Amino acid sequence: MDTLSVCLAGATGWTGRALVPAIAGAPDLALRSAVSRSTAGRDLGEALDGEALGVPVHGSVAEALDGVDVLVDYTSATAVKGNVMAAVRAGVAVVVGTSGLTGADFAEIDAVARERSVGVVAAGNFSLTAAMAQAAAALAACHLPQWEIVDYASAGKPDVPSGTARELAERLGEIARPELGHPIETLHGPQEARGATVAGTQVHSVRLPSFVVSTEVVFGLPDERLTIRHDAGGSPEPYVAGTLIAVRRAPDLVGVWRGLDRLLLDAP
Q1: pLDDT reported for residue 265
Q2: Rounded (10°) CA dihedral 115, 74, 40, 71
Q3: Which of 54, 58, 107, 187 is most buried per CB count within 10 Å?
Q4: Bridge partner list, 10
Q5: Helical H runs in the chain?
Q6: Where does residue 112 fall: left (phi above 0), alpha (psi -120 to 50 degrees), or beta otherwise?
Q7: DSSP assignment, residue 56?
Q8: If you compute the radius of gyration of the chain from its CA atoms, what whole number of angstroms results?
């Protein structure tokens, strides 16, 4: 069995901390390096207040890619694009768990990834249940003409909509554009009350305490309604299994693959 060498960017963050033991303990994966600006220069295990792991922490992705097969990025909306581009240009496959990238960003990344024959797997949510919710919504959009998305997250989340909601809207936009009961531009009152238009879908972002990330897509027909909703709890553990699936598949892909469900169902 070949062993894949992994660099984890955002290793001391919320999801990164859960991924460290999972990657380090997998027989077919090796955690070769980590990226965390606040703990650069230290051993990752010691940076996490544990025993040394023999994994160096670097201050940037560019410094951490030597001998790496796959970069896993769980950093921030401001850093992720630069990190992904650095890896792709170095010929390193990427798994993107960070939100904040737009459809235009992914198109730019895809062009470079195809030029370098590199795979990039990106998901707004790497949990398996979120992947199933997205797959169900894609099926519904093939048959139901009207839908909107409600995006719930914690009060302090700085990016809107969440990566999960943005990815869902853009995925549904590839299937069809939902019909509107009344054109947005001719509404009476603040147009913002109808949410933001993302890839043709109206998305409403709610930011309140007690939410982690919940994404709800509502399909409507006369006298009936279908709601598909995914709720995340307060732990990063649900994202671990899906991330590891993506790590194992990314080196065999070329270009950007968006959505864990698409990877599970469509990848060769």
Answers
A1: 81
A2: -30
A3: 58
A4: none
A5: 14-25, 44-47, 80-89, 103-116, 128-141, 163-175, 238-249, 260-266
A6: alpha
A7: B
A8: 19
The DSSP string of 1-33 is -PPEEEEEETTTSHHHHHHHHHHHH-TTEEEEE
How does pLDDT run across 167-221, given as a tens digit for each residue? 999 999 999 999 998 999 999 999 999 999 999 999 999 999 999 989 999 999 9
pLDDT tens for each residue of 15-26:
999 999 999 999
Residues 253-257: contacts with CB within 8 Å, 24+ apart? 253/93, 253/119, 253/120, 253/121, 254/113, 254/114, 254/117, 254/118, 254/119, 255/110, 255/113, 255/114, 255/119, 255/120, 256/106, 256/109, 256/110, 256/113, 256/120, 256/122, 257/119, 257/120, 257/121, 257/122
Quote the pTM value. 0.86
Give the total residue count for the chain: 268
Residue pair 118/254 in contact by the 8 Å Cβ criterion: yes
Two tokens at 142? 């093939």
Least Cα distance to 79 among 43, 117, 36, 124 occurs for: 36
- How many CB atoms are located within 10 Å of the residue 201 CB? 24
**What φ, ψ does residue 121 adopt, rounded to 5°?**
-110, 125
